[in-house]
Sequence to fold (67 residues):
Amino acid sequence: MSAAEASVHILGIDLSGWPRWALIAAATLLVTGGLWVAMKVLKWALGLLLVVVLLGGLAWAVWELMG
Fold:
């Protein structure tokens, strides 16, 4: 047995015994959860970007006022 065959044998998961509808439902739930997490991270990142732009703009305006 080659290393490639051994890794496929070790890492492979046989889902043939599961009904198709259950696999589709599980995959749908996993993808939905992943998208929800991505949305939360993006919302946090956009909020941080908004604060950085606001503070940067205000600092620039104060710099121009002083100079």
